[in-house]
TrEMBL record:
The chain crosses the membrane at residues 12-31. GO terms for biological process: type IV pilus assembly. InterPro entries: N_methyl_site, PilW. This is Type IV pilus assembly protein PilW. Keywords: Membrane, Transmembrane, Transmembrane helix. PROSITE patterns: PROKAR_NTER_METHYL. It comes from the Bacteria.
Length: 282
């Protein structure tokens, strides 16, 4: 009768080692797949937000400086010629422009803080959907203010007639959140030459702190460019991308490693201002 023999101790140890190596390999693949999926989800989330906010800002800012006195839908309870002059000559509002709220206006954020942009236009409602009692298709002077609060990009609208002290503010707007997870919002303004030169080309870009001097030099804002730094929700992986980013002419921002970050650029030609400058010297 043949004697039966099992695995030797060396064979068992080799088998266990091979099994352990296979298990570690499978775990590494699973961890790597999970990390890749998490990163891909963060990238998709940020890119979707970036596409949305780029389109929205382009559509809304493109209307800055719009005022058409030839259409019958403009509410004529105020002097329309004066209102048109105000909106067309000041598409970008500055602090001190409005009697009722002197602090409302485009500002440059201190250090690396986000900027704030305020625009004048003719519209039937503001950026929050408030029509201020108008009945469609009526329109009037509307003011939209875009700013960052915490990590939220918000907007709030005003009746331009109220801000100028012409009417009471019977239906004020409440601020609304346009987008979450905004790490930075930076704005620069493209200036024309002296409007009397009939040159609607951009001759320089400046930040909001230089707009008052540009007005005194009879220059008009004819374009706006914006860069937004968006971030994902916190992730469980470390972002291996660069830990610093610079938006426009601002100082570099230091990024943390728990979010995925991406910069989105928006450039808007203010076609209404371009037409205004182009016809100023005619």
């Amino acid at each position: 009768m043949r004697a039966q023999s099992g695995f030797s101790l060396v064979e068992l140890m080799i088998s266990m080692l091979l099994g352990l190596m296979l298990t570690v390999g499978v775990i590494q693949v699973l961890v790597s797949t999970r990390a890749t999926n998490t990163l891909n989800q963060a990238i998709a989330e940020v890119q979707e937000s970036g596409r949305y906010i780029s389109m929205r800002l382009q559509e809304e800012l493109m209307e800055a400086g719009r005022y058409d006195t030839t259409v019958s839908s403009v509410d004529n309870s105020v002097d329309l010629l004066l209102e048109a002059s105000f909106v067309q000559s000041q598409p970008i509002a500055l602090p001190g422009d409005y009697n009722a709220q002197a602090t409302v206006g485009s500002t440059e954020g201190s250090s690396t803080n986000s900027d704030e942009v305020v625009v004048n236009l003719l519209a039937g409602e503001d950026c929050t959907g408030n029509s201020f009692g108008l009945v469609s298709p009526q329109e009037m002077h509307v003011v939209n203010r875009y700013f960052v609060d915490g990590d939220q990009l918000k907007c709030i609208g005003y009746s331009g007639r109220y801000l100028r002290g012409l009417v009471g503010n019977s239906t004020p707007s409440s601020e609304v959140v346009i987008l979450d997870n905004v790490a930075s919002f930076q704005v620069e303004y493209g200036l024309s030459d002296d409007v009397n030169n009939n040159n609607s080309q951009v001759v320089q870009f400046v930040d909001a702190s230089q707009l008052a001097a540009a007005r005194l030099a009879n220059q008009q804002v004819v374009s706006v460019r914006i860069e937004l730094l968006l971030k994902s929700e916190p992730t469980n992986i470390q972002n291996t991308a660069t830990n610093q980013v610079r938006l426009l002419s601002e100082a570099p921002l230091t990024l943390d490693v728990k979010h995925y970050y991406q910069v989105f650029a928006v450039s808007v030609a203010l076609r209404n201002s371009l037409n205004y400058v182009g016809s100023a010297a005619l």
